[in-house]
C-alpha cells in the first residue's frame, strides 16, 4: 500500500517540523472497486452492498519498513447484492468519512457475489515505506 498525500504530509510534519500532528487512534480497512488514488475514491457503497461498512483493523509494530494487520479482516456481502469486483483496499482513520491514509491494489481482482465472504488473513494488509 502507498500512503495518501494526507498521511505523507502528517509524517513529514511529525519528522521535520515542530507542528502539532494528531495521530490516529483507530484504523479501518475499506474495499474499493477501482483505484482509490490519494482520496479514497471508488469505495464500495451501501447502494452496491447494503451490509458494507469499513472494518476495524490493528497493525503490528513495524519491522524492516513494513507492518501488517494483526487479525483477520472479514466482510460478508449482502444477500441482495448484485455483486461487484474488488480491486483495491484502503486504510482510513474513521469508520465513516475521516482521512484516507493508504491504499493499494490487490494482487488480482476479486469478484464477489451475494452472500459471499471477503477476508484478509493476518499479515495480508501490509503498509510499507521504502
List the strand order in the largest sheet: 1-7-6-2-3
What is the helical fraction, as a range of percent?
under 10%
What is the mean predicted local confidence, pLDDT? 94
Give the number of DSSP strands. Answer: 9
User: How big is the Rg?
Assistant: 15 Å
The gross shape turns out to be globular
Given as residue ranges, the uncertain stretches (5+ residues, pLDDT < 50) are: none
Secondary structure category = mainly beta
What does this structure look like?
The protein has 130 residues and is mostly beta strands. The chain has one helix at 5-16, and strands at 2-3, 27-32, 55-57, 66-68, 73-76, 84-92, 100-112, 117-120, 126-128. The relative contact order is 0.27.
Q: How would you summarize the topology of this molecule?
A:
Layout: E1 2-3, H1 5-16, E2 27-32, E3 55-57, E4 66-68, E5 73-76, E6 84-92, E7 100-112, E8 117-120, E9 126-128
Antiparallel strand pairs: 1-7, 2-3, 2-6, 4-9, 5-8, 6-7
Offer a concise description of the structure:
This protein has 130 residues and is mainly beta. Helix content is 9%, strand content 36%.
Keyword list:
130 residues, mainly beta, two-stranded antiparallel sheet, 1 helix, 36% strand, globular
Amino acid at each position: 500500500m502507498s500512503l495518501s498525500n494526507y498521511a505523507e504530509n502528517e509524517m513529514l510534519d511529525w519528522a521535520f517540523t515542530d507542528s502539532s500532528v494528531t495521530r490516529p487512534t483507530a484504523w479501518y480497512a475499506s474495499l474499493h472497486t477501482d483505484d482509490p488514488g490519494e482520496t479514497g475514491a471508488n469505495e464500495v457503497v451501501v447502494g452496491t452492498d447494503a451490509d458494507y461498512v469499513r472494518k476495524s483493523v490493528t497493525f503490528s509494530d513495524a519491522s524492516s519498513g513494513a507492518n501488517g494487520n494483526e487479525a483477520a479482516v472479514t466482510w460478508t456481502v449482502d444477500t441482495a447484492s448484485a455483486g461487484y469486483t474488488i480491486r483495491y483496499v484502503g486504510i482510513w482513520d474513521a469508520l465513516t468519512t475521516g482521512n484516507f491514509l493508504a491504499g493499494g491494489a490487490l494482487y488480482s481482482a476479486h469478484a464477489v457475489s451475494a452472500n459471499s465472504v471477503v477476508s484478509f488473513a493476518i499479515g495480508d494488509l501490509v503498509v510499507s515505506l521504502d
